[in-house]
Each structure stands twice: as C-alpha cells, then as structure tokens.
Design a protein that fits this description.
265 residues; mainly beta; nine-stranded antiparallel β-sheet; 16 strands; globular
C-alpha cells in the first residue's frame, strides 16, 4: 500500500534543485511510489529520529539559528485571511494513525511523533508529501505551525490544496532563506505560478503558514503577513496536505503542528 510519495525533484519538480534554478521548469516523469511498512519506531541510519525527542514533543526553535524579525506593514483588510467557516479537519497530531500517510524510504521519512508530524529528507533535490485522506473541498483555508528542526536554510515546506493524485495538486511553500513558491502540478506537468524572495516576513525558526484556495485565487500568508495571490483555474477540488523538499544541501528535518483546514466564511 502506498505510504509515502517520493519524487526525484532534480528531474521532476520546479524549484527543488538549485542546479536547475528556482525558476526552471524541467520535464516531468512518473513518480516513484515505494511500498512501505509501518512507521519506523527504532533509531537507525535509514530513518534518523532525534534521540532527544520528548514523549510529547513541541516545536522548540533550534538554538543555533538566528531569527529574522518581520519588517513589512501588516496586510490590508482586502488581503486578510478569510474568517473561519466550517472546520473540515483539525489535527494536533497527538493521535498517530489519524489520517495522513506516514512511512520511510531510503532515509526519507514522514513520522508522527505523537504530537508532531516530522519530515526528514536525506537526499538532495527531493520532495515528499502526505495528504490528509480526510478532506475533499473546493474552497479551503489551511493553517499550520512549521519549524525547521535541522538542516540548511535553502529548504522548501508548506501546504497543499486540491490534491487529486501525484500528478494533480497545488502547493504553497516557503523556505527559511525567504523564498516563496506556488506550484501547480497538472496532468504530470509542473508549472511555477510564483517564485520570489520575501525574507522580511519570515522567522528563521518557527513559522505560522496559512494559505487559501478560493475559486481561482491561491493566497499565501506567513506569520500574519499577506505574501502573494495568484490566479489559476486548472484544479477545482481535492484533498489538503503537507509537503517538504530539499535543494542541494540535505539533510533537512521539518516539524509541523496544529494543522487546521476550514471553509472560508
């Protein structure tokens, strides 16, 4: 049974290989879909899990990273995050096995630590994600806390909306070096809808990511700051998810907590 989707992003995905450039659009091929067992519970070289993780881990900022204080003005009312309507999914990841694919392959893993969803990537230019398996929505707003637990600042992590399968979804992501990316993947072909630097809105450690997919408008917010909106009509409904990628300096470990998806009001 499919547990985790791994893509050799050097060949497949826009913006996940520095050698291609963050605005390049390589030719896509079929993703590798490995067969995996249950979530690893033992520490090994193939599935690195920090030995100092507490029984109820929290998103504690790395003591070695320097924070970048936001300097931009708060977003205007017309760019404000939509108010909450119906809650579609709310998950603090305290219950392993509550939706979400988890698993390990070649040292890349997605693990529920009993309060944290942790992504670890050990390969350069790779992308992994997990969909919720619990949501099917057209208009949706997502919020999540995300922390670079370990690794290089040139990373890639965020949320997905209108996920249908490995060939059809939107992803809205950030990197700790300040790069923002909105990616469309339709019919197995990737297209970069937006890719620019927005360093001032970011924190080098913990970031609150919010994104809305409403009608043809996809919008991204970071730490209460409106970042960007783009227009696209290719996909109109699907699941939500979490996604993490590396460039050419692995490993990278990112932790997520306090995910919520809801309809706009």
């Amino acid at each position: 049974m499919k547990k985790i989707l791994l893509i050799a992003a050097l060949l497949l995905v826009v913006g996940l290989a520095c050698s291609l450039g963050r605005n390049a659009t390589p030719t896509a091929i079929e993703p590798v879909v490995p067969t995996l067992g249950t979530v690893p519970t033992e520490v090994s070289a193939a599935s690195p899990v920090p030995t100092d993780v507490p029984a109820q881990p929290t998103l504690v900022p790395s003591p070695t990273a320097e924070s970048v204080a936001p300097t931009e003005e708060p977003f205007s009312s017309q760019d404000a995050l939509p108010e909450r309507g119906e809650i579609l999914l709310e998950d603090d990841f305290s219950t392993p096995g509550n939706a979400w694919y988890t698993g390990e392959e070649d040292g890349n893993s997605i693990s529920n630590l009993g309060g944290i969803m942790e992504f670890t990537l050990t390969k350069a230019s790779w992308l992994i994600w997990t969909e919720s398996m619990a949501v099917s929505a057209s208009d949706v707003v997502m919020e999540v806390d995300a922390l670079l637990w370990d690794g290089d600042l040139t990373n890639n992590y965020g949320v997905m909306c209108r996920y249908i399968d490995a060939d059809n979804y939107y992803s809205l992501t950030i990197a700790n070096d300040g790069y923002v990316e909105i990616l469309k993947y339709v019919g197995g072909e990737s297209e970069l809808l937006y890719g620019e630097m927005h360093l001032a809105a970011f924190d080098a450690n913990l970031n609150h990511i919010a994104a809305s997919c409403i009608g043809e408008t996809l919008s991204l917010y970071v730490n209460g700051e409106f970042i960007v909106s783009v227009e696209d009509s290719s996909l109109d409904s699907g699941d939500v998810g979490l996604i993490v990628g590396t460039y050419d300096t692995p490993p990278v470990t990112v932790r997520f907590d306090n995910f919520i998806a809801y309809t706009p009001r």
